[in-house]
Design brief:
mainly alpha; transmembrane; membrane; transmembrane helix; DUF4190 domain-containing protein
Length: 125
């Protein structure tokens, strides 16, 4: 149970820092480890018939790990766009330059989503 909590806290901590790309993916790997540890802990707690807040806390932690893991998977799928964004932020000095990086990321993501949608549409028809 403690190891699950520590791994989840480490994953959350890594997710908060603006680390250079691809370090944010380490948070996703830790989320997967936390999911496995959390499931094992939940099975042990349920098997030992522990009463109290332990089960709801484990379930909440598992949900948090799953959501964070999905967010990291989305970044992995959009690797190219987030890599470019990370490089842009690394070179940005002013707030205006950082805003321009964010705007460029939004445009790149919109373009990628449209490309994926066209690919799906052409596959259906």
């Amino acid at each position: 149970m403690r190891i699950f909590g520590l791994v989840l806290l480490l994953a959350m901590g890594l997710g908060l820092f603006a680390l250079p790309w691809p370090w944010p993916l380490a948070s996703g790997v830790l989320c997967l480890v936390a999911l496995a540890l959390g499931i094992v802990a939940l099975v042990k707690v349920r098997g030992a018939k522990v009463r109290g807040a332990m089960t709801p806390v484990l379930v909440a932690g598992l949900v948090l790990a799953a959501v964070m893991g999905l967010a990291t998977v989305s970044q992995a799928v959009l690797w190219r766009e987030y890599s470019t964004y990370s490089e842009c932020l690394g070179a940005a000095i002013t707030q205006q330059a950082k805003d321009a990086c964010r705007s460029q990321l939004e445009r790149d993501l919109d373009e990628r989503v449209q490309d994926m949608q066209q690919l799906l549409d052409s596959g259906r028809g």
